[in-house]
Amino acid sequence: MSVLKGKVALVTGGSRGIGRAIAEVFASVGATVVICGRKLYALDHVAGDNEILSGRIVPMQCNVTRYAEMEGLVQTILAQHGRIDVLVNNAATNIYTGYALELGEAEFDRIIDVNLRSVYRMTGLVAPTMCERGSGSIINVASTAGIRPEPHNLLYSMTNAALLMMTKSYALELGPRGVRVNAIAPGLVETEMSAYIWKDEQKLAEHMAMQPLRHLGQPEEVAEVALLLASERSSLVTGQTFVVDGGALVA
């Protein structure tokens, strides 16, 4: 398959979980995929883990809470590869779970920096070159928590709700210039971030009891939706949120 042959993609938070799965799926269909994160050794591991994809996944260190590093990353990609066709804003954190009134300023600032400000900044750095070419796809990886708030998860729910509105606003303004902007809202997926749920047998059983499709989501299942949004197969799709949750929100 060569769905993304010749395309250059940037995936933030690409060293594990959903970000890694997206990078591997994109690379398997012809894209050159730059993955970024704070830990270069973890990125190198992804890049060297699959001989078939050798050379198609390019690791570059970048802390998405530091604007200078983000700016340098984008400039390096443009210098080395000439373009960025697909941007996947996947980097996120969920550092605080607990009673809302016990929330501290430091936790609030940190989650805003990672979950929102990084998307705003990265989009601001990448989208102008897409607009100049008249084409591009931006995919924001959010969560169903942005649609239905999770108990004791104020910050994560709040930032994901804002990310979904940011997606719609960018889609509205960038659409006339040929750039599509969409979001994916996964439910429970087997990643490190959600391990506190799926590693707890009781919590997992309770969740599965209300989810129509009774299996734990896998990163690859989210990656396939990202592939659709990155490709021209979704050429008339923008401003949308694709829920990938096994039907949990419906139940």
Question: How would you summarize the topology of this molecule?
Answer:
Layout: E1 8-12, H1 17-28, E2 32-37, H2 40-48, E3 57-61, H3 67-81, E4 86-89, H4 105-133, E5 136-141, H5 154-174, E6 179-186, H6 195-198, H7 201-210, H8 219-230, E7 241-244
Parallel strand pairs: 1-2, 1-4, 2-3, 4-5, 5-6, 6-7
Helix pairs in contact: 1-8, 3-4, 4-5
Describe this structure in words.
Helices cover 45% and strands 15% of the residues. By secondary structure, it is α/β, with parallel strands linked by helices. It has a single domain (8-244), classed as NAD(P)-binding Rossmann-like Domain (Rossmann fold). The chain has a 7-stranded parallel β-sheet, sandwiched between helices. Helix 4 (105-133) links the parallel strand 4 and strand 5 (136-141). Helix 1 (17-28) crosses helix 8, helix 3 runs parallel beside helix 4 and helix 4 packs parallel to helix 5 (154-174). 42% of the residues are buried. The model has no long low-confidence stretch (mean pLDDT 95).
